[in-house]
Specification:
By secondary structure, this protein is mainly α. 65% of the residues lie in helices and 3% in strands. The protein has a two-stranded antiparallel ribbon with strand order 1-2. The chain is rod-shaped, with a radius of gyration of 30 Å.
């Protein structure tokens, strides 16, 4: 579902609580997304400039190193003091260039880190717009590497996390009302049972342990279990 369809669905449903909050979150996404992307582009450009500066520094360092090598091999007609002075000056120049190179590499690393942080900030904001939640609360859901959580046109893709039964997802699910659950996982809520989850049957006291291998956890069943029994908001 794209953004326009989501807005239309919200407008046509008078029973959704906190509808104004959802609109505010969606509007925040629309207004803030471009600013974050522009800042990210500036960081990428800055990183490219830093990398170019590193290349220039390396060229200069190589040039000085060649001069140093030539000075070491060319000893005719110079006193020991003159040769020593030249070698000392050239060695100092090499050290300065090496220091500048390290600083440039540090700046490049910082730029890369900032770019990643901006990317994550954009991701969190897009998630927040979809669930109508405070971005700070999303840390319960996205307390995992950003590449494990993706945003798609039809909603938030967290099937891998559900399949792995991640604790952050379970904790966050407890804070959601049914309307939010339905907004994120429409397929799950539509098929989830309305009655309380049945208690798991207990084996007989003297029954031998089962040798049947465990089945792979199914994403839909995990999410259904997470959302079953969550009380509806008034």
């Amino acid at each position: 579902m794209d953004l326009a369809a989501a807005l239309a669905a919200i407008q046509n449903c008078d029973t959704l609580p906190n509808r104004a909050d959802i609109f505010a979150a969606v509007n925040a996404e629309i207004n803030g997304k471009k600013a974050i992307e522009d800042e990210r582009d500036r960081v990428v450009q800055s990183k490219a400039e830093i990398l170019n500066e590193k290349k220039k520094l390396q060229v200069e360092k190589d040039k000085v190193q060649r001069l140093l090598d030539e000075a070491i091999s060319d000893v005719e007609g110079e006193s020991i003091e003159e040769k020593s002075g030249k070698l000392k000056a050239l060695s100092q120049k090499v050290a300065e260039l090496e220091k500048a190179k390290v600083e440039a590499e540090t700046k490049a690393t910082e730029a890369e880190t900032k770019a990643v942080q901006l990317e994550q900030g954009l991701l969190y904001q897009r998630v927040a717009a979809k669930v109508g939640a405070d971005p700070d609360a999303l840390t319960k859901l996205v307390n995992l590497p950003s590449d494990r959580l993706s945003i798609e046109d039809d909603g938030v893709s967290v099937w891998d996390e559900a399949k792995a039964n991640k604790q952050p997802l379970k904790e966050y699910a407890k804070t959601l009302g049914e309307w939010q659950s339905r907004a994120i996982f429409p397929e799950v809520v539509a098929t989830a049972p309305t009655a309380p989850t049945q208690q798991r049957s207990q084996p007989a006291p003297n029954a031998p342990p089962s040798s049947t291998p465990k089945k792979e956890v199914n994403a839909t069943s995990v999410l259904s279990g997470l959302y079953t029994g969550i009380p509806k908001k008034a």
